[in-house]
Amino acid sequence: MIQETAMKIIDILEKRFPDACLLLNYRNAFELLVVTILAAQAPDERVNQVSPSLFQKYPNPAAMAEADDEEMDKIIQTISFYRQKGRNIRAMSKKIIKDFQGEVPKKVEELVQLNGVGRKTANIVLANGFGIPAIPVDTHVARVSQRLGWSEFSNPDQIESDLAKIFPREKWIRVTHLLGFLGRYICQAKKPKCWECPVTNWCPYPGKTISKD
Ligand code: SF4
């Protein structure tokens, strides 16, 4: 029953957000890995502003691994925690060269060995870089999953596991894009816009808002 309602909700969201996708710009799995690390607690738009210059100067793991700390920091300095992120990106690039023959690995357990890469980032890369079914649980996906009654946990790994039980594998990537858009544009943290939410009739959240005021 929960699966049936969940698929109905996803169909409705597909109509509401046909263009739902990752909002970071990238051309390959390595660039996706780098921009995802940069985007932690930073707006995607800001990352998209700096990434073209970053990849022009350091177009691959080998170049990134050899990057001069200060020169690279100068390019990414408008992004929060840029020094730490820069360190992680250089160390991650070195590890890709040393342990993975210069290629971004395609397994979550290998990706999480890279500096600055947690399970969410690993799942983002698998799903969006390689098209491998994965469920990256960011703050939007977590909040919406809880409000829709699909998970009672706040831990992203447990939410991922709950969503994986509800949806068939071939839907995982699309589900996370759609939930991400619902959370970003309508089901916002402080005041969800339930009055304009296309799935309000199926949402059990007790704190639903009925109007703007
Ligand atoms: S009805 Fe409100 S709480 Fe439920 S999913 Fe929509 S915006 Fe979120």
Give the helix level as a range of percent. Answer: 55-70%
Task: Write the CATH architecture name of the largest domain.
Answer: Orthogonal Bundle
Question: How far is the first residue's CA from the last residue's CA?
Answer: 34 Å
How many helices does DSSP assign?
11
Total discrete domains: 2
Number of DSSP strands?
0
The kinds of small molecule bound in this structure are: iron/sulfur cluster
SSE order, one letter for each helix or strand: HHHHHHHHHHH
Using the alpha-carbon principal axes, give the shape: elongated
Largest sheet: none
Domain HhH-GPD: 38-185
Cofactor: [4Fe-4S] cluster
Organism: Candidatus Atribacter allofermentans
GO molecular function: 4 iron, 4 sulfur cluster binding; class I DNA-(apurinic or apyrimidinic site) endonuclease activity; DNA binding; DNA N-glycosylase activity; metal ion binding
Features:
single chain; 213 residues; mainly alpha; Endonuclease Iii, domain 2; Endonuclease III, domain 1; 2 domains; binds iron/sulfur cluster
Structure characterization notes:
With 213 residues, this protein is an all-alpha fold. It has 2 domains: 2-19 and 135-202, Endonuclease Iii, domain 2; 29-130, Endonuclease III, domain 1 (Orthogonal Bundle). Helices cover 56% and strands 0% of the residues. It has 11 helices and no strands. The protein has helices at residues 2-16, 29-38, 44-57, 61-65, 69-76, 82-99, 108-111, 119-130, 139-147, 156-166, 172-185. The radius of gyration is 18 Å and the shape is elongated. It starts with a helix and ends in a 28-residue tail after the last helix. Iron/sulfur cluster (SF4) binds next to helix 9.
